[in-house]
Specification:
The protein is of the alpha+beta class. The protein is about 20% helix and about 25% strand.
């Protein structure tokens, strides 16, 4: 059975624009202006929904821009329709020359921002996952981070940093004392939790460990009364087939993007209305 792979490790594959939202999937357009640019469905802008909800204690803010603390995860969250000042605030948070990483984002950055990565992706939600605890799975925590980082280095499931483990529950499977597979929780919009960091060492692939861990993580999410969801690269058809076989269904097509902040971006300013904020860096979490 194919193992899951991160969207950030897959080559870009162009897809048609995302289809109009169905009643089941929820609306995918902005709810309107508003100071935060909120969407009608929390999964339409999942990083922003997380940082204004259950993950607010991880948030840093500049104006209307939010991001996770840099040692937690690289995701940054914009309003649904960012303006010129929003991009200045992105630069304030990240710094000149830094790479910023966006998910569920389709509007292009300013013309002088160099796009270094772009890939089409899919967002899938739990409709019929046979969620269940796994007797071999062990809870992973801060003391296990060196092993987790080593497994990530070997398998490349996507961004995993020293404090990523703090985002939620992570489960692993060891063989002969060595961590060979893991999966856990990342983005956390209210009522939803993303399953992420699904990876299996090459020595044990084909044994269904990824499927078992996904079911086990999904069980914990369901026990909290929340719904699991996940992302995959549109080109990663093996992972998509795996997720479909487990009971996940397509909610929407999305995109992943990384761009470099221009050296002079922070110095650009324009007048803001009083409710838009001053664009200074603020530690939101405590």
């Amino acid at each position: 059975m194919p193992e899951a792979t991160s969207p950030l490790t897959q080559p870009p594959t162009l897809l048609p624009p995302p289809p109009a939202a169905s009643p089941e999937s929820g609306p995918s357009r902005s709810a309107g202006p508003g100071p935060e640019g909120d969407t009608l469905h929390p999964l339409d802008n999942p990083a922003r929904s997380s940082l204004t909800g259950p993950h607010a204690h991880f948030a840093e803010r500049s104006g209307r821009i939010l991001r996770y603390r840099p040692d937690v995860t690289p995701w940054l969250a914009l309003p649904d329709h960012p303006d010129a000042q929003d991009w200045v605030d992105v630069a304030t948070l990240a710094g000149p020359g830094a790479s910023v990483t966006l998910t569920a984002f389709r509007e292009p950055p300013p013309a002088d921002w160099e796009i270094v990565f772009h890939a089409e992706g899919v967002q899938m939600v739990d409709r019929a996952v046979d969620a269940a605890p796994d007797p071999e799975a062990v809870l992973l925590g801060p003391a296990d981070v060196p092993e987790m980082l080593d497994l990530v280095e070997r398998t490349r499931p996507g961004p995993f940093l020293p404090r990523t483990v703090e985002l939620g529950t992570y489960l692993g499977i060891r063989r002969d004392g060595v961590l060979v597979a893991m999966a856990g929780e990342r983005l956390h919009p209210a009522g939803w939790t993303e399953i992420s960091a699904v990876c299996t060492d090459e020595s044990v692939r084909g044994q269904g460990l990824a499927s078992r861990l996904i079911r086990a993580v999904a069980h914990g999410i369901r026990e909290r009364g929340e719904t699991p969801f996940l992302h995959a690269a549109a080109s990663n058809t093996g992972a998509i087939r795996l997720y479909e076989s487990l009971g996940f269904t397509l909610r929407r097509r999305t995109a992943f993007l990384s761009a470099i902040v221009p050296a002079d971006a922070v110095t650009r300013t324009r007048a803001r209305t009083p409710d838009q904020g001053a664009g200074s860096l603020e530690q939101v979490g405590r």
